[in-house]
Amino acid sequence: MAVMLRLSDEQWERIRAHFPEENIPPGRPGRKPVPTRRVLEAVLWILNTGAQWHMLPQSYPNYKTVHRRFQQWCQQEVLREVLTELANTLRDQGDIDEREAFIDATFASAKGGGDEIGPTRRGKGVKIMAIVDRHGLPLSVSTHAANHHEVTLVQLSFDFYMIEAKPEHLIGNKAYDSDDLDSKLKKQGVEMIAPHRGNRKLKTQDGRALRRYVRRWLAERYFAWLQWKRRVLVRWEDYPENFLGFVQLASITMLLKRF
To answer: What range(s) does the Transposase IS4-like domain occupy (predicted)?
Structure first.
């Protein structure tokens, strides 16, 4: 028997303004509109289990309705709006501290087709990029073709940044050791902190700043949390915005737990 996933009343009230009910004119033939809360809970079941849409239990709305509504939310960037509002509310409450942030990426294989999929030695797939605060809470989540080097995706990650103030310090691994990146971020008021690559000739990193690197596990913990949601382990979606939508929804569930 399938386990039902439910949003608490408090969680639903916090986000419901972003999920208007479907407006079907009175007298129009056909089924009555499905309550949006039930649709969202059905998508959460797919996110958690990683199951195919047609395997949605009968206790939820029809899978075609759920899939259609989910695609609408992804196309209209509804989930990004929810994530942004939650992050800013937590920051206003003092629960997000962006002065020190951590950046990292993880690989997800892609079994279907579609755009923004790239070949790698591990097979074709996508990269999930994330910037998290010093509590491990997401400040930016995005997805990109896996054949892009992480250092080239930092600026794109900031395009998905959810709060107004950028971090004073951004900490990453050796993949982010780049003079060009350091220079670009410095102009934006951000200090990039990353260990030197083994082949670097001119040392530029202050050893004292590298003490912050010991907390980079916060970014790794975010991905560990994320990957409990089975639907983001593999990209099955043909449309990149749908896969990003699942990543954003997983991050929403993380932030909702902080209220």
So the answer is: 99-232
For residue 25, what pLDDT band results from cuts at 50, 70 and 90? Answer: low
Is the Cβ–Cβ distance between 116 and 127 less than 8 Å? no
**pLDDT exceeds 70 at position 134:** yes
Sign of CA dihedral 153, 158, 160, 162: positive
Radius of gyration of the chain (CA): 20
Closest Cα to residue 170, out of 98, 91, 102, 99? Answer: 102
CATH code, 97-233: 3.30.420
Say whether pTM exceeds 0.85.
yes
* Residue ranges per structural domain of the chain: 9-21+33-75, 97-233
Which has more pLDDT, 46 or 204? 46
What is the per-residue pLDDT for 1? 37
Q: How many alpha carbons fall within 13 Å on the CB side of residue 239?
A: 12
Query: Can you tell me which residue has the tokens 């009343």?
Result: 9
Greater pLDDT, 239 or 31: 239
* Other CB atoms within 10 Å distance of the CB of residue 138: 26
Phi, psi of 110, rounded to the nearest 5 degrees: -120, 125
Residues linked to residue 101 through DSSP beta bridges, in sequence order:
170
